[in-house]
């Protein structure tokens, strides 16, 4: 199998008509190239979307109040209502599978600037939260600290600001910690700055929000024990999608909302959306393999057809070798090796060009900066190994029919062939 003469003969056969060999090899190389590019593009899209989920507790739902559409217990339909802080403990008791329940409040943006520092001002969204919110948001403390439960209990007027606000209201080298911001006429001390784990450095809202203790927010802005909405995360091993109905029914009972009122409480299931995205990734991989393999099959068919032509051209040679007593399996092995060799070489060229193309795309992305929903297109070593297996199997299939045809040639008939 590894004899020098056999490999010399293979090279002579394939190089005897170089144009035909190159044209045939192009089909296989193109198929592998397309397969790699499609998989890399899918991976780039997957990386980009996953970056948007980076640092986010995906097993989370967000819940808020709307307007009732059904009368219940003497209360009319069309009623506006709020969650209360007591609902948090009620949910925690009734649904023990939950890990984090974060009640939240916020100030809507007004027409004018709501944050002032010296002669600088800006319009930003203000949140009242509990310390656990940092586990549910894609943010991290870049400088200083996040507020804690001592701040919650003592209702300290402290805030954590986004790095975008620091750039808006402070000089480049100016110290931020310990300074004061006037928010809706009330002074608050800055104890930390945050950055977003998924920020691409753009967007009007990028890192331009302010977080303060929930109790401080309630006291400063006269919210009493009202809760605007909740971010709720399930424990590992539990699905928030399966728990959402129990959570909603618990607060409906607490707020005297009809159990069948579907519009009174709004919610967004992040876990369900994340699973849909995961399904999309699977579909993209399937499409990439399906299309790439179809293109590859067309190339393999071309290799098989060319090998049949080669066998016809070498009919007399095969007859002489059979007449001289060469084993039919030896002839069959020769054809199979020629087919596999041609397929692997052309496929490897396709892999090399695919790798160079991906390298060029990544270099371009590095030079122009991040692109939304597309990041670092690549293929893993596992994909390359799968491609190599496909090439070997394809080479065997491409040479199988011609090889069987070759050993069926009767020596006397082959010798008579002109």
Walkthrough of the structure:
- This protein is of the alpha+beta class.
- The chain has 2 domains: 4-54 and 276-416, no CATH class; 60-271, no CATH class.
- It has 13 helices and 14 strands.
- It has helices at 4-15, 18-53, 85-94, 133-136, 149-154, 163-169, 214-220, 240-254, 270-313, 315-323, 328-368, 381-407, 411-416, and strands at 60-65, 83-84, 98-107, 115-117, 120-122, 125-129, 139-144, 158-162, 180-183, 186-196, 209-213, 226-227, 229-234, 265-269.
- The strands form 2 sheets. Strands 1, 3, 4, 5, 6, 7, 8, 9, 10, 11, 13 and 14 form a 12-stranded mixed β-sheet that branches. A two-stranded antiparallel sheet has the order 2-12.
- A hairpin with a 2-residue loop joins strand 4 (115-117) and strand 5 (120-122).
- The chain is elongated and about 105 Å long.
- The mean pLDDT is 82.
Output the radius of gyration. 34 Å
In terms of per-residue confidence, which ranges show pLDDT below 50 for 5 or more consecutive residues?
none
Shape: elongated
Question: Which range does the strand content fall in?
Answer: 15-25%
Reading the helices and strands in chain order gives: HHEEHEEEEHEHEHEEEHEEHEHHHHH
Feature tags:
418 residues, alpha+beta, 13 helices, 14 strands
Give a nutshell description of this structure.
The protein contains 13 helices and 14 strands. With 418 residues, it is of the alpha+beta class. It has two domains: 4-54 and 276-416, no CATH class; 60-271, no CATH class.
């Amino acid at each position: 199998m590894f004899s020098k003469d056999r490999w010399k003969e293979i090279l002579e056969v394939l190089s005897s008509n170089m144009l035909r060999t190159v044209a045939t090899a192009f089909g296989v190389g193109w198929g592998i190239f397309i397969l790699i590019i499609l998989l890399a593009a899918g991976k780039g899209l997957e990386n980009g979307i996953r970056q948007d989920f980076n640092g986010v507790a995906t097993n989370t739902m967000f819940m808020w109040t709307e307007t009732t559409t059904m009368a219940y217990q003497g209360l009319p339909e069309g009623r506006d209502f709020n969650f209360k802080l007591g609902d948090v403990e009620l949910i925690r008791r009734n649904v023990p599978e939950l890990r984090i329940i974060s009640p939240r409040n916020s100030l809507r943006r007004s027409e004018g600037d709501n944050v002032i520092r010296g002669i600088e001002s800006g319009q930003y969204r203000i949140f009242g939260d509990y310390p656990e919110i940092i586990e549910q948001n894609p943010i991290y403390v870049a400088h200083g600290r996040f507020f804690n439960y001592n701040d919650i209990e003592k209702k300290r007027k402290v805030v954590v600001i986004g790095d975008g606000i620091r750039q808006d209201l402070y000089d480049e080298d100016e110290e931020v910690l310990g300074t004061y911001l006037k928010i809706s006429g009330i002074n608050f001390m800055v104890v930390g700055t945050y950055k977003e784990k998924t920020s691409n450095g753009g967007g009007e809202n990028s890192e331009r929000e302010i977080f303060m203790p929930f109790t401080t927010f309630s006291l400063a802005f006269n919210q009493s024990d009202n809760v605007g909405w909740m971010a709720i995360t399930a424990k590992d091993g539990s699905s928030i999608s399966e728990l959402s109905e129990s959570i909603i029914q618990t607060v409906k009972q607490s707020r005297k909302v009809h159990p069948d009122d579907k519009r009174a409480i709004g919610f967004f299931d992040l876990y369900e959306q994340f699973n849909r995205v995961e399904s999309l990734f699977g579909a993209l991989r399937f499409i990439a393999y399906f299309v790439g393999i179809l293109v590859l099959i067309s190339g393999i068919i071309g290799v098989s057809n060319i090998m049949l032509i080669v066998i016809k051209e070498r009919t007399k040679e095969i007859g002489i070798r059979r007449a001289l007593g060469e084993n039919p399996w030896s002839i069959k092995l020769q054809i199979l090796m020629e087919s596999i060799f041609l397929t692997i070489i052309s496929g490897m060229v396709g892999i090399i060009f695919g790798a160079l193309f991906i390298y060029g795309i990544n270099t371009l992305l590095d030079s122009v900066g991040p692109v939304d929903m597309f990041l670092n297109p690549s293929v893993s070593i596992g994909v390359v190994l799968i491609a190599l297996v496909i090439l070997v199997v394809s080479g065997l299939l491409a040479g199988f029919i011609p090889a069987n045809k070759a050993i069926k040639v009767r020596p006397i008939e082959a010798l008579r062939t002109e």
